[in-house]
Amino acid sequence: MKRGLIYLLTVFLISFSFLNAQERFRRFPPSPQPLVDLNLPEIRSHELANSLRLSVVQNTQSPDIHLQLIIFAGESHSPDDLPGLATFTAHMLSKGTSIFSSSEFEDILASIGGRFAVSVFPEHTIISISFLKEFLDEGLDVLGKLVKNPSFNQKEIAKLKTSLYHSMAGKRFDPDFVSRRLMLRILFQDHPHQKITFNENGIKNIKHDNIRKYFQTFYRPNNSHLILIGGIDFQTASRVVSRHLNTWRKNNLKYSPLSPPKPVKRLKICLVDMPQIDDTTIFIGNVIALNTPEDYFSYSVFNRVIGSTPNSRIFMNLRETKGYAYYAFSQIDLFNKFGVFFIRAKVRSDVVLRSIEEVLREIDHVMKVKIPSQEIEQAKFYLLGNFPIKLAGSRFFSTKVSEIIAFDLGEAHWANYYENIMQIDSNKVFELIKDSSILTPAIVIVTNANLSAEENPFIDELIEKFGEVEVYNYKGMLQYTLK
Q: In the chain, where are the structural domains located?
């Protein structure tokens, strides 16, 4: 009996020491290794005769050419009565031209080892085509036909309507998608950017003439920037691009850049009742001003400290210490001249209010008390060490280049990345955060709220704490307010 107790005590002490050491490691990771030289290739740019801007990034390590055509018009430029038109138009590009059908387009892509994708943002659209580098001529020939000879076939329009409608309607049971869309809808209220949060209802009203008018207005060389990334030199790229795109005709464009949306000034609680789920998804976010490149880098360091990794404060609090959350992370989405900082968490449904209170407490604390220099330095070295690793992936590399050009970020976000992170310190982060709006966010809760019940302790707790709760449907439409 005595030996058994000694054995159990020994096992306990060994286990405790191991777990304690593991916890120390999570909170105080090893000292960083020396930085890897970035040696980033130059972004060389040139403007063609038809005002199409071309940028070439020579990356001899890549077997592919990554082509990205940025159109400086996005969902914010859709008509007010047709949100979703920009997205629909972009997706129609792969549905055939006057020269080849949609199935023939797929065959052409396959023959050059190609992939096609579109991404639509509030103020720009990106058409992406990647292909094996020996097929540069063929790849640019395809792009030229897409932008100069789209057919917008009625049959293809009908098929895309059905496809997009059912795709979006199917996301009604995805709490992450519903939460994020509603949060952006609240943050972009009364601003053209809100059209990026369109639901499936808008798709039904789009017609052939709407698509053609949007395309003819915005898909012009003087409203575009072409990026080529891969094993290609600048002179060759300029020559081949000119051969395939010099007859793409420009147009007079008369629209002004949009001012950024203003942050939410009063904390809002927004609830979506989703009876099919067991746990609760929470999004907490607000618009943040990015007036200078330094603001972005300060927020990046702050984001690393507060919640971007499993070693960050919010994850350690909600999951490791309290056991409330399955995950809890923060993120910054970059837009033109501003960003959206948000925290997303999946928590147990019996601790929703306590989880929100903990997140707000963490944010309130860093707005009142400077983050210790040691924590800032660890965050900086994580970002500095992670950046070249991420750049090694062709997708991130291409995305970063297009982001720099689309948002006109310049050398600060490319060749000078290390220097801009290194100059951030605790004082700079504190001065930026203490005057921000991140403590008055929109809070979106997607949960099984059982709103049909006459008395609901969960809802009563939220009302008692925050005064009122706005109830929305999964499409992001306000239904009523509980007080």
A: 43-245, 268-482
